[in-house]
Amino acid sequence: MATGVSGSAVSIRREDGQVYLRIDGIGSQTRTIPLPETSGSMSGLIRAVTSEEPLHIAAVRTGGIGDTGNMAELSHALTPDDEFSQYCRNRTLLLIDPSGEGRFDTEDMIAVKCSRPDLMRGKTVFHNLFWDLDGSGSDVFTFAYYDGLAADAVPTPSTCEDGKPRNDGSIDIDIRIGTPVYDYVLSADTVAGVPKDEIIASGKFTGEAHRIDGLAPGTYTLKVTQGGGNDIYGTGGPLYTTYVHDKRIFASGEVSWTVTGTNSNYRLGVEPRISDDITQFGFDVRGDKAYMIIDGHTSLTQFIRIKEGDVLTLGLEGITVSYKLNGKVIRRFTQWNIRAWRLCIKFGTGETHITGLTVNGEPIPDFTHSGNVQVENPKTNTALFTVHVGSECDPTLPNGTEKKEGSLIGWSDRPENGEGNSQGNGNKDDSFQVKPDCTTGIFDVVLEQDQPGDVTLMVFDASGKLVHEQFMEGETTKRSRFEAPAPGVYVVKAIGPDWEKTRKIIAK
């Protein structure tokens, strides 16, 4: 960095094989350079090369641009029965009750999702903790984990052309908590010209978001399912000494898993019952190539290219070994060297993430492991939604979502309006209301007061930074509207001459 950043917030982030330099949260292509994930570990260094004035840098943080506010750690290895360990990656929550009564009411509670765990120290880590947002001094907290599927479905209405609706509506599936591989089925409920229960779209997706487009106006039923296979993270080294293996022994069957990334090296297959250090058959995955392991040796000439979402399968039946990609047999071999086997995974360089792992269609109930490894045994869960896709041609048509099953317990936004109560005493003050207007990030503010007077509206983000300020319009009924600059938690204040009212909201 040279000049022109005085007073600015500067961040450097490494993600998905790139390094980004951002000034006040804004990056550019000229400030982005490639750096593969296999380039080793990352460390930070600040050094003044030349300067006309003394160098002064404030508010220095490490660990990611998301590191703001306070941090907390839960020693999951010390909890009774070690029950938090398998959920330490993305399912453990820190629940904050602003009332101070320890009720953890779903309408008033704030839930903070855990960050990346420190597996070597046995810690679940939480960043971005902001205590006592309402100034009552009464926050209490506890820890919980959520083993279900928490998802949202957000429709976008179809556009209008020559007074007729086009079939270009869409539904965005947003996963809040779950495993990274999902199946979905969208069927018609009440759609013009389409029989009821006819399947409109179906498939599989990975990650936290997926869009279904090309939809006509109408009402649909959406089913999103999380599979029940093991979810495993592991970081090893060039000698592949970090491992996990199944404690059970099999004579035949199939091992299957889903690829979630191509930035690491690992070996997954089967090893003989009498020998623990040889992967006899399986796949030696190196980045985006999966080499076949045959009779204990990696074949450098027999490989397949893989991508995120692909399903790899190894089948052993009698003396036949089958290698499959997305259910299709790629190669078959005859072997005479293995009669009983168990599943094994050995981790090389880079962080490996394997999901949907099953043996004979079932997740592995118990592993033996060594090194930097975290294993989750997720349950099979389904979220059902009734989704109304509207039309710009007819604003009276509904455009929204009705969830058929319970929402995530402990989330801080209310399903009906996204508003949180921040009075600290559990009693809602209806004279000050902040509600979304069904447009992403836009909120309407209404204040009822006994006497006319000037009122200032101020909106702060979770770090305490003022992001919006204006005078509210009206006499005894004051109104304002503002747009949240990004998703997150915000504190909204109406400030009079000698009083103030506060609300906490979440912008999705």
Description:
It is a single chain. This protein folds into 5 domains: 65 residues, no CATH class; 76 residues, no CATH class; 102 residues, Immunoglobulins (Immunoglobulin-like, Sandwich); 147 residues, SPRY domain (Jelly Rolls, Sandwich); 89 residues, Immunoglobulin-like, CATH 2.60.40.3080. With 508 residues, it is mainly β.
Supply the key terms.
single chain; 508 residues; seven-stranded antiparallel beta sheet; T9SS type A sorting domain-containing protein; Secre_tail
Q: Just name the CATH architecture of the largest domain.
A: Sandwich
Which CATH class of the largest domain applies here?
Mainly Beta
Spatial shape: globular
CATH fold label of the largest domain: Jelly Rolls
Radius of gyration: 27 Å
Structural class computed from helices and strand pairing? mainly beta
Looking at CATH, the homologous superfamily of the largest domain is: SPRY domain
Indicate how many domains the architecture comprises.
5
Q: Which sequence of strands runs across the widest sheet?
A: 26-25-24-19-28-17-30
Q: Determine the N-to-C terminus distance.
A: 34 Å
Percentage of residues in strands: over 45%
| Count of separate DSSP helical elements | 0
- Number of strand segments: 40
Protein name: T9SS type A sorting domain-containing protein
Region (Disordered): 395-433
